[in-house]
Every structure is written in C-alpha cells, then in structure tokens.
C-alpha cells in the first residue's frame, strides 16, 4: 500500500511539474520563465536567454551555460540529461530528445540517453537532436536536420539523417549577447 501511495505521489509531482512548465513557456516575462525552471531544478546561468513558447521535460536534468540562447518554440527533453555549454545558439523550434520508445521492443520499452551540446555550437531552425547525441564545440546543425549520434567539433552537418557537409573555422571568439541586452518580455 505504501508503494502505491509513493508511486501516485510521484506521478502527481511529474504532472504538476509538466503543467507548470507548459504555462511558464507562455509567460511573456523572461525572468519569470527562468525562476520557474530553476524552481523545478534546472541549472541556468544568469546570462542565458530562454525565449517564449518553450517546453521542458524534467527540469532537474537541464543545464544551460553562459550566454546560451534558446529560441522560441524549443522543446527540451531533459529526462535523460541535457547539457548546453556556453554561447550555444538553439534557433526557433529546435527539438532535443533524450528519451524515446524502442521501436524494436515487443513491449515498446522506454529508453533514455543524455544529450550534450558543446560551446559555440549552433543548432539551426527546426533541427531535431535524438537521444545519446553529443554535438561538439563549434559544430553547426543545419535547419531541418535530424541528428543521431555524435557530431565532431567544428563541423557542419545537415540532412535526414544528418551527414557531414563541411568544416567550420576553429578560431571562433564570439560571445552571444547577454540576456540583459534583450527586451525583458522576450
């Protein structure tokens, strides 16, 4: 009986977290969005920017580094662990998944694996990153790409499935704008 009560309480907590995070994504004030994410356990650097319209799955698994920018409409699944380095740019409607069902499994088993995105990586619009992927420092994922597996540092990948298209210069020195330079409502 005690186990059933604990499981029910855990489910209610997950439901409350999901509902709160969905609502937070719609709030037109950046600082409030960040407070809600941190309240549920996300680690977000003070200079990071999280645009409106996002969705986060399991905030405790989310870590966002300095000056990283999360575009509007992003889905960040952190159930398996999601780490973004510094100066990472996620464009509009990027989807990052750390959990999925095994299509080969007879009982449609759930599996998860962490995703890590290195410093100064750029994930362009509507790209999808699948569980277990590591995007190296300075790498670029082209718009609409679907990435499964590792992307080497300073490479450009694109397509479905994503393949290497080119190399990016390795002497990157830029820093994305601090969130304080953006409008308070964005």
3D architecture notes:
The chain is of the alpha/beta class and 186 residues long. Helices cover 19% and strands 27% of the residues. It is built from two helices and 19 strands. The protein has helices at residues 2-26, 30-39; strands spanning 43-44, 49-50, 55-57, 62-64, 69-70, 75-77, 82-84, 89-90, 95-96, 99-101, 110-112, 115-117, 122-123, 128-129, 134-135, 140-141, 146-147, 155-158, 163-167. The strands form four sheets. The chain has a seven-stranded mixed beta sheet. Strand 18 and strand 19 (163-167) form a beta hairpin. Helix 1 (2-26) packs antiparallel against helix 2 (30-39). The radius of gyration is 17 Å and the shape is globular. The model has no long low-confidence stretch (mean pLDDT 92).
- Counting DSSP H or I runs of 4 or more residues, the number of helices is 2
Strand order of the largest sheet: 2-5-8-13-16-18-19
- Termini separation comes to 47 Å
What class, by secondary structure content? alpha/beta
Q: Number of DSSP strands?
A: 19
- The percent range for strand residues is 25-35%
How many whole angstroms does the radius of gyration measure? 17 Å
């Amino acid at each position: 009986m005690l186990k059933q009560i604990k499981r029910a309480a855990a489910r209610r907590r997950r439901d409350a977290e999901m509902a709160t995070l969905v609502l937070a994504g719609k709030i037109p004030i950046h600082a409030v969005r960040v407070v809600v994410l941190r309240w549920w356990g996300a680690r977000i650097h003070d200079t990071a920017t999280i645009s409106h319209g996002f969705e986060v799955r399991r905030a405790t698994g989310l870590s966002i580094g300095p000056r990283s920018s999360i575009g509007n409409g992003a889905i960040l699944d952190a159930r398996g662990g999601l780490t973004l380095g510094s100066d990472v740019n996620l464009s509009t409607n990027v989807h990052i998944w750390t959990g999925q069902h095994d299509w080969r499994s007879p009982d449609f088993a759930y599996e998860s694996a962490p995703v890590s995105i290195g410093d100064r990586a750029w994930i362009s619009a509507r790209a999808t990153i699948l569980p277990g992927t590591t995007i190296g420092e300075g790498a670029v994922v082209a718009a609409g790409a679907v990435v499964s597996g590792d992307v080497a540092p300073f490479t450009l990948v694109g397509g479905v499935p994503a393949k290497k298209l080119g190399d990016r210069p390795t002497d990157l020195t830029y820093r994305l704008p601090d969130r304080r330079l953006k409008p308070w409502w964005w």
